[in-house]
């Protein structure tokens, strides 16, 4: 009971002194991602860990069991605040709902860096990334370039209401509409390869004339590709995330392209920014890690990069 | 003389019954205590007041949903739609308050109404359409409600609510979260409902032997409709707390909550065959679920290992209870 | 109709898939009378009363209560009209306490502002009163599932009394009761009569009809045959009306020569249920086990069969000690148990007669890897004939058979076994006089062919009539053993109540 | 004379039974036919051979998992772990073949072995640890297996398999997919198993009344272990087909498949209370699920509406069956 009574005092005092006392106590950065069940987040993790090594700070990367497990992620933030980490780098699965928890962190004197996905919150130290919307636009522009106005496109997307996939879809849709391409269909495939294949099989029935496919992640893209190959068709397929499997497929001349957000940089720069914030050094509000397309032209060097990152 | 004997006997019996009850709900409690002890050793933060309050907050929503789920499971049923009902009721509330500028309190009440109504529909499908098992009706509702939530919101979250809405989910008296106090209140009410009112007892009777319940003149259909309505209502209450907690309503809210709720109920010692289970067991079950996750987070266990450990702990917790019961029957 | 007639059922007909259960049946009940209902298994007795209590809906006919036509759509309606029933298939709540079961559906409540709360204190008081009336010493807090079938039957009686109805229906209330409880029940019934309450009483124990009934109606094949006054009729006449023929013999005991030792148990003990049980059963003889309800007979034989654990004691089968820890073990040793409670232990109600009959000996019907249905159908068909189970087809779901016919299925099921020791627990529970004889003949046949039969029964005449030897159990102990010759009613009752 | 009577009666019985059986499994069939008719009208592509073959392909995996699920539900149990078991068994196979260069056929067999083993563990937890309900053991396994799959693969898909591995999932004879032929074969085997072997009958008996089954000398524990082992095995077979189909094994494979499988079984007319259900009903149930999804894609229904429609169709299909049964009992 004595412990509990002095507890609040302790923490509040710490918030005051956090700026000065840093040199003395080791810096702990908690990176909280949307999930750790895909290559993408694994690479973010790798980047964050690398930054930790380079800057000599302790980095722990955590995430809920699935990208849609919003409350799981929020509980993670809460618990890391309790652990009084020096700073948080968070990729919010559901930005608006995360804001109260960011406020909480701020109140506890814990600076918050947003990575991969931005939130409309002024308290943030910085946003590190490019956003899924821009990625989607990039995919759209590529299809425009390849097919030109009047081109017939379908979009295979992840779960409705999952902001990541909503934004990627919207980005593409906006560009395609603007440039006068025909979006024959938008179908959900649960971010999963098997379902991506099934959905594409069915789409090929309903729209034999489809010329281009954008899938909001590489898993679905590779599934769709499989269906297209099975039907002996030649259709442009653009994926998202630049996962190792996607690169392999591009190199083999199967998958046409994949949107890459340089997840490694997101992780690395995110931690960098967090450490700066802890040390009280200035950080710019927006750190663009760049989004770009991987096609057969640049796939080789991308693969090499990836192999170094994943230490293969 | 004989009277005396009988009475003392009675007394003895009643005590024995009480003891047994306490023991039985203690069953899971033991698991919770063991688990907490381990975590307290492994993490210095676990026992901090702040953290305990986190657990209180993090267990609140599941606790609220689980008590509704308990009712359905007591009748040998199930409600898979709770997660979606939570989502739909909360987005309706959000739309009313934010987009239509309706008085927040009224909006909240309507939100609860929506939840209750969806539950009512589950009950009607079961009793009037005679669908063979609530699994079907509530699975259907699970999909329908989720879809409607997505349609109404165009799949985008609605955020930024007035304090009164946030109060239940985010407010606290001193260090104690309001949401936790709500849980306690709700559980006391349901305890009384289930143990002290005819309808409460009928719920057990229907699960125990539905035919016998009918022959005893119980209006089985009516009770079942009440049960599913309450389950929907509790899901909406959970939604209210969630919206307050995150100051946003989003269409994918409550995804997969049904599994957590069912787990809490079963870990809490209820039986899928119906007729067996207590609110306190369920509460402990819900807290266990929250404690596992909280502990793993404090220990910064990586997500993939977290799933492994959560799976093992669920099994372990229930197994502990099994062992306890066996000892109990041995000793008596 | 005169004003003393409280109930009148006119031209009631009811058919189920494949059977015409009731054909244009008339039935009437006077105020304060006890009206017996007799008939073979499957005659339509339970169906008639289930129509009266709204469990089934009649196809044709009318029901008048105190002269007014009434519609009864479900048991609730019946209860509201003051019609309460004990059903043949007990309808209790396994997990709820004795006290709660007694008042389920009509709880004693105290009205607070807006909610009705159960008054547990009063509930217990009232429950205790009723149990006392029945001379029944039961813990009000025990869950029903921990009671033996006979005790459950007594709780049902307590329950129906607690409803203080105008019409009380009892469908074979004594089928698993022994003399003592039956006597208590009769006292209660007479008290009801005095209060002007009418009772419809179904039983296959004819003596009871003569003891308590003012009138008796006999049914056969869904039709009402006659209504007459017991005082002016005889057992044989009633039987002739029931089965259409006379029974020359109720207990067709045959002389067989006692053979080798088949089963010997030594100091069998399960704490709290039975202690130091020792007895021996021989081939070629029927060993009767008598006792009051709750004496522990079922517990003992279940333990021998490996269905329940034992704390100590030895079991010898044909001279060799055997560890029996599961029914499989017992069956492997050629020992089978025909359980007392068909509903929970004997049958798979949702399966067909065929499925149930062959279940315990399926491997026997394997031809190569697969089951040979023709063989299974043939054997079950023979048993259906032999026990004259009333069912339109072997594919009928057992749940839809009459109580007695269900009981016959349980017995048929175990006759497919090539066992050498048969333990029957209340084998003739709910079986009509004619069929009983058939079952006794089967027992005779078994012992004649060198099997050993052990029969638990709460019906003393049956014990006395069929056993070569009789042991008596009281509160989990063997209190006496009698040879056929020197056994009689009084001696056994004495030992059973341990008054000696 | 009597003999004759008997035999004719016999014959009558058997025919009557057959008719009834056909009718009962037809129950869901009717729903499937109605659904297909509607889709055929709405979409010109629906009845094209190619599309029908797509449906065959797309229903194969769920069909394979569902028949295992049916066994567990027949015993009044459930297996929540099928999705994760599918994932773990297939990634183990993938690692053996791709990373360790083990002979593909051997790898596939080991993969199946892993699935069966995980199911076996489910059975042991149920019968030896006496966990109250398979919900707990299989929920635990669901998490454990998923976690292990993620750990073993470091969350990375493993792709590019030799033809022999792809054959089952992707191959086809003429237009007919191998996977569909596998399904037919498996279902015939399970039909015979359930109707013509003692163990098969015991599965129904246990679900009908476990106590009576035990007292009939059935080795209940053994049968239950067999049931869960087979369920695990069938999940692994589903995994085999999935890997062949997409030419990749990935740790998130089979996510949520348990719900589809259970839905197929229940739509197929099986009862959660156990003892009731047929393989053919289950097959039709699985096909219905696939047809709905296929139809929604063909009709380009927008994602948010898809969930709503799936929910409604599930309810509708089962309700049709309910109506049919009622008529049946009326007419006979
Ligand atoms: N629910 C049901 N469905 C189909 N048939 C039924 C149903 N209930 C009873 N029957 C049939 O109706 C007939 C009469 O059954 P009933 O239970 O009334 O006989 P009973 O006189 O009570 O026999 P018992 O003395 O064995 O109890 C029997 O042939 C039985 O198979
Ligand atoms: N499952 C159980 N758990 C605990 N006690 C039990 C259980 N079953 C029976 N008993 C108790 O064991 C005693 C014997 O009951 P049982 O019914 O076996 O006796 P019985 O001689 O067979 O009488 P009956 O005619 O009622 O079967 C009773 O006191 C009963 O309360
Ligand atoms: Mg009857
Ligand atoms: Mg008995």
UniProtKB/TrEMBL annotation, chains B, D:
Natural source organism: Caldanaerobacter subterraneus
UniProt xrefs under InterPro entries: ABC_transp_permease (IPR001851)
GO molecular function, one term: transmembrane transporter activity
Membrane topology classification: Multi-pass membrane protein
Record's protein name: Monosaccharide ABC transporter membrane protein (CUT2 family)
Regions that span the bilayer: 21-47, 67-97, 104-125, 164-190, 223-243, 264-293
Cellular component GO terms, alphabetical: plasma membrane
Keywords: Cell membrane, Membrane, Transmembrane, Transmembrane helix
UniProt-annotated location(s): Cell membrane
Pfam families according to UniProt: BPD_transp_2
Automatic annotation (TrEMBL), chain C:
Biological processes, Gene Ontology terms: monosaccharide transmembrane transport
Cited PROSITE patterns: ABC_TRANSPORTER_1, ABC_TRANSPORTER_2
Keywords: ATP-binding, Cell membrane, Membrane, Nucleotide-binding, Repeat, Sugar transport, Translocase, Transport
UniProt xrefs under SUPFAM superfamilies: P-loop containing nucleoside triphosphate hydrolases (SSF52540)
Domain ABC transporter positions: 7-246, 257-500
GO molecular function: ATP binding; ATP hydrolysis activity
Compartments, as annotated in UniProt: Cell inner membrane; Cell membrane
KW rRNA processing (keyword) present: no
InterPro entries: AAA+_ATPase, ABC_carbohydrate_import_ATPase, ABC_transporter-like_ATP-bd, ABC_transporter-like_CS, P-loop_NTPase
Topology class, membrane: Peripheral membrane protein
GO cellular component terms listed in the entry, alphabetical order: plasma membrane
SMART domains according to UniProt: AAA
Name of the molecule in the record: Monosaccharide ABC transporter ATP-binding protein (CUT2 family)
Annotated organism of origin: Caldanaerobacter subterraneus
Source taxonomy: Bacteria, Bacillati, Bacillota, Clostridia, Thermoanaerobacterales
